[in-house]
Amino acid sequence: MTEIAIIDYGVGNLRSVERAFAATGNPATITDDESILCEAKGLVLPGVGAFAACMKALSARGFDGLVRERVMKGTPLLGICVGMQLLFDESAEFGDAAGLGLIRGRVRRFPREQVVPQVGWNQIKKRNEHPLLAEVKDEAFFYFVHSYYCEVADSTVVVGETDYGVTYPSVIARGDLLGVQFHPEKSQAVGLQMLSNFAHRVRFNTWN
Amino acid sequence: MLAKRVIPCLDVDRGRVVKGVRFTSLIDAGDPVAQAKIYDRQNADELTFLDITASSNKRDIMIDMVRRVADEVFIPFTVGGGLRSVEDIRSVLRAGADKVSLNTAAVASPMLIAVSAETFGSQCIVVAIDARRRDPHDAGKGWEVFTHGGRQNAGRDVIEWAVHCELLGAGEILLTSMDCDGAKEGYDLELTRAISDAVRIPVIASGGAGKLEHFYDALTTGGASAVLAASLFHFGEFSITQVKDYLRERGVVVR
User: pLDDT tens digits, residue range B162-213?
Assistant: First the structure.
């Protein structure tokens, strides 16, 4: 059985995510095969570019329903970058677009005075201890590339925050539904550590 | 806080890293993956590969190199050189590159910026601008855009072109001063500052680094988000670690 499936819905640099998992010793499979996505023990939802385009591509393949269903049943899912943003109710990018509605809140653009996109290495301040960030130091640098950020309605889901003109949630968790705004697959050793933590949760069905 | 980036640039010819003054006296300097790993260990924030191959089958060789880099190096990297179409860009991104850098093709066909930004997202479209002063001694006269590896004057003002690139959806500007490139007397700070002030997307300063303080100046006086250098790192005059230690000591936030 496939342990970790990376959802292939036609967007993003999936290969990097796959290679990064492989480097941690936890193979992940890039797939658009619905039966594999329905059975995998853990899912990764990547995403780059425009929110609406990603949501449209996901829905066109019927994966929006699939993701919702599996998350509701407790399957661990990690959203990366726009993949994290898609978990929210809606985005203000190019007019309002609806997301998956799994996390209360919305996606907003960085303030006008900021250089946008934010490109580069920024820090995660831990707000809650969470095993996803086990072995990752507080204020560690991760690689970010984005123009929009998530605004949560319920701050209990915030695991880590980042400052860029505003302080915004960069790591969120609601049960085993997880999201990171940065690219762990491009964040050297700390990124691989985080992916390894997620893989551990998937493989052994426990965070311990 | 968002850290300032230090980016080594690798010139690649037929899938091999080459050292030397661009287009002349190229020395084979080995495997790009091996070199990328060295920079990765020195804590480079990103890598930029510039393909200078003239041959027609370059795409396949480049794609193969991109795949191999993506397999082993887990920091972002940009690929530039000879990318002309959305399909060219797609193939490089699919192979594992995070960004592409467009230069001559963007000037020849500015809509390529718009279409590719729309297709792949602004974050992966870097526009590289080669800039030359109208008057070497007077920054007030402005800069002109050059293409074809600096051989052709495009007849466009650099500030005007940079603003236009931003409007079309470019995610970053890689700004090279042709006047300063190779001279090791520092980046063109007036140029860097003029472009950083004119656009609200990140500007990567390139061309002219020779001393540690040059990196500092480009990031502070010049207002750049990142600094790029090629030969200085290739020839081991400074390691990336040294540059970052220096910047940190002077109060610049680096990773």
Answer: 999 999 999 999 999 999 998 999 999 999 999 999 999 999 999 999 999 9
- Other beta carbons within 10 angstroms of residue A207's beta carbon come to 14
Interval B119-133: pLDDT, tens: 888 999 999 999 999
What are the phi and psi torsion angles at A76 (to 5°)? -60, 130
Domain map (residue ranges) of chain B: 5-249
Question: Which CATH number among 3.40.1190.20, 3.90.1170.20, 3.40.50.880, 3.40.50.12780 corresponds to the domain A4-204?
Answer: 3.40.50.880
Q: How far is A73 from chain B (nearest CA, A)?
A: 32
Sequence spans of domains, chain A: 4-204
ipTM given for this complex: 0.92
Search chain A and give the residue with CA nearest B99.
A13
Q: pLDDT, tens digit, for every residue of B81-98?
A: 989 999 999 999 988 899
- Indicate the fold that domain B5-249 takes in CATH: TIM Barrel (3.20.20)
User: Which residues are CB-neighbours of B143 under 8 A, at least 6 positions away?
Assistant: B131, B132, B133, B134, B157, B158, B159, B191, B194
Chain A interface mutation, best of B2, B195, B240, highest count of A Cβ atoms under 10 Å: B2
